[in-house]
Design a protein that fits this description.
Shape: globular
Largest sheet: 2 strands, antiparallel
Number of helices: 14
Low-confidence stretches: none
Distance between the termini: 23 Å
Helix content: over 70%
Strand content: under 5%
Order of helices and strands: HHHHEEHHHHHHHHHH
Oligomer: single chain
Number of strands: 2
Strand order of the largest sheet: 1-2
Length: 338
């Protein structure tokens, strides 16, 4: 057998060590376990108490629901910066409808309903309004070829402004207990269902396969007969629908519809998706991986607070963790080609 030529050696670089590949594949799980162990020791066992775990569940539920939608968006090769503003505006709109009826343009279209039907209407309007915002964004992105970053940034600004305009920046408070109940344990259950549906959609449906295909190679998908524009539009509709749902749940959790709500939610959702192993270039990621990313952020937030770390340093630490995740993802992406 003739020795390998320099060209062949260059074309076939040595595979990375198995242990290092395993670390890249499962490092985020190990990191989550290490965080839990460290914070439990640092708080002398208070971290794993049932009441604290319940608090973590409540803290991560909203981010988890949003991160499911963001996973679909990022796998498809897009990004959505508008979701925080969608949470604020939909929360204001839904709670104002619940308390004061449906009013728009200076005209009352419907008076306030009794609490039960009013809550059902608030949720229905929230889902419909979120889906409509997602449809607008997805249509402009796919039909007018506007970059997702620019389009969703524009929506972020405009919708946030609408949240202030709609009620003159006055929060909607005094919400009934039957509504705020949804901001407790039911919110966590909804988050679990969202992850289950998201993972099933990506792994077991034709639409999920199309999402991966479009994110991996949009032109090849188009040549293969995939309706790329429709797939990408539906991804943003799903993201908007989940954003609308979170608008109602966030209002229920804090006890008011607040135009300030949702600030930074889009960044937390993106961070969770990246920590969970999705590629910002598209074509790779899972809902279960995103769940791990959500838990990492939740554990990090809760644990740093319990050990008394300054909120400013918390931002620095979270930023460094996200940066490390991105760097490791790039290393992993290179080695996957080997």
């Amino acid at each position: 057998m003739s020795p390998a030529t320099p060209q062949a050696a260059a074309a076939s670089p040595p595979r990375p060590p198995r242990a290092l590949r395993a670390l890249l594949d499962y490092g985020i799980l190990l990191f989550l376990a290490a965080l839990v162990l460290y914070f439990d020791l640092a708080t002398q066992g208070r971290f794993h108490r049932a009441d604290n775990l319940h608090n973590i569940g409540l803290q991560v539920a909203i981010n988890g629901i949003l991160a499911v939608g963001m996973t679909l968006v990022i796998i498809s090769g897009g990004i959505d910066l508008s979701v925080g503003s969608v949470v604020a505006f939909v929360g204001i709109f839904a709670t104002n409808t619940l308390m004061n009826g449906l009013a728009f343009g200076g005209h009352v279209w419907m008076h306030a309903l009794p609490v039960g039907p009013g809550i059902a209407l608030a949720f229905g309007l929230a889902l419909a309004l979120g889906a409509f915002i997602g449809l607008v964004g997805g249509t402009v992105i796919t039909r007018l070829n506007v970059p997702p970053f620019i389009m969703t940034l524009a929506l972020y600004t405009a919708i946030r402004g609408m949240a202030y305009v709609y009620t003159n920046a006055v929060p909607v408070g005094d919400l009934p207990d039957r509504f705020t109940w949804w901001g407790g344990a039911p919110m966590v259950i909804i988050a679990v269902i969202a992850f289950a549906v998201g993972e099933f959609t990506l792994r077991r449906t034709r639409f999920g396969r199309y999402v991966y295909a479009v994110g991996g190679n949009e032109e090849a998908s188009r040549l293969s007969g995939v309706r790329v524009a429709a797939v990408k539009t539906w991804v943003y509709v799903m993201m908007g629908t989940l954003g609308g749902l979170c608008g109602v749940l966030q209002a229920a959790r804090i006890g008011s519809g607040d135009p300030e709500a949702g600030a930074g939610f889009e960044l937390n959702a993106i961070a969770a998706v990246v920590l969970g192993g999705a590629s910002l270039m598209g074509g790779r990621g899972t809902a279960l991986g995103t769940l791990v990313g959500v838990l990492v952020i939740g554990v990090l937030n809760n644990g740093l607070q319990q050990v008394g770390v300054s909120p400013y340093w918390q931002l620095v630490i979270k930023g460094l963790v996200i940066l490390l995740a991105v760097v490791l993802d790039q290393i992993k992406a290179r080695w996957m080609k080997v």
